[in-house]
Amino acid sequence: MSEARDLNQAVKADPLEPTERARSNFVRDMVQRRDGSQLASTTWSSPTPKRIVQFWNDLQRLPEDVKACMDSWKQLERIGFELEVFDENSARTFIRNRLGARHERAFTRCYHPSMMSDYFRYSYVLIEGGFYIDADDVYHGTPIDQLFLDGRLKLQPFCYDIATSQMVAPSIFTEPGANQPGWIFYFNTTPLIASRHHPIVDRALLNATLSLEAEPASGLPEVQASTGPGNLTRSVFEVLNEGCSPDAMMVAHDWELISTSQWPLSYRNDSRNWRLSNQQAYRASSISNAQ
To answer: Are 159 and 283 in contact (CB under 8 A)?
Structure first.
């Protein structure tokens, strides 16, 4: 009787809904299973284009500190990589021309630049393949050619501890068996590396489109769940559970050796930071680019 009571208390203590916990456990198993870095099967043997794609909604008002992050990737042009940078207008044009009116309408419903970047990255990588990286990620100079040898989806794992309101270090949460009741395992949307028409990217775009098309009960859709890491993690979970081979993706366990998101940056203190504008009408900051 006491064991049953303890189990019920443990279930009630879990801050996640059952479906969310199932996804988190699924990601944890993937992340802590270290066979994901093996060579891909012949299904994914075609290489990923050596194309790096970035987005900032208004390039005329690109902060200097963000520009420095973006420019750190330019050194890869010397060894054969292509770099493409999009803003809101060019991203919209790409989506309209390559995916059509429905997807353009969904893109228009992205009320914050972070959502635009999420929706655009799914759109671009699905159609063209390549490597999307956020504008605030700094490249450390580590060779990355091995990530383009096959067409698998490469994703960075994250783990958030609800109890401490802090991220858990990869060196801790990637160890087999590591877990705490308040930990949430999920996949980040940056980097997003895959060959064109990858089924998980396809599902991420579909799920984001459906979320943006839905009329929310009140207010605006939540960024993480509708286009961000929540959407991507859900899409991984769905596609692999529907029978797609786990060989379709690779967990980038040591991504922080290649690139890290830069902190602090000037834009993080105003409405350009989605965390401060989540489910709120976005108003572009008037802060000078010189910051």
So the answer is: no
Tell me how many domains the chain contains. Answer: 1
Residue 225 lies in a domain: yes
Q: Which domain holds residue 232?
A: 38-158+188-277
Q: Cα(120)–Cα(189) distance, rounded to whole angstroms?
A: 11
Instruction: For residue 171, give the H/E element and its range.
Output: helix 170-173
98 near 67, Cβ under 8 Å? no
Domain harbouring 209, CATH code? 3.90.550.20
Which H or E element spans position 159?
A: strand 157-161
Domain assignment of residue 60, yes or no = yes
pLDDT in tens, 211-226: 999 977 667 888 899 9
pLDDT in tens, 274-284: 344 455 554 55
Residue 55 near residue 116 (C-beta atoms within 8 A): yes
